[in-house]
Target: Methylglyoxal synthase
Amino acid sequence: MKKRKRIVLIAHDNRKEQLLEWARWNKKLLGDHELFGTGTTGGIISRELGLDVHRFKSGPLGGDQQVGSKISDGDIDVMIFFWDPMSAQPHDVDVKALLRLAVVYNIPVACNRSSADFIISSPLLQEEYDRKIDDFAAVLIEP
Model:
């Protein structure tokens, strides 16, 4: 059974063109899903490809935290995040927190074109998937 996934698209400034190129190549597949994006990235994808993208704020202005909140609420299934490994970001701590939440809530994350290609072409993207989430309560110190 086909299952629409909730996919968030994020790219640092030096990687926006690469994400746009990848999204253009995968426009039909992306159009089958519910898309989200941080401010500028979501706007570019929407404007250039005519896809409906629910937009958060720009990453440095709180968009990364908004995405993280959606992940922790179970409202994001996949994150495509073309981050720039060669440039320091003023919001690096937000990026690290976002990636940490993606791991905690066990969602697939693509950080480059190759991993994004593997995710977008996976048959699991088209069907129901029971994501297993670790119980971290045992490692948290309770008062």
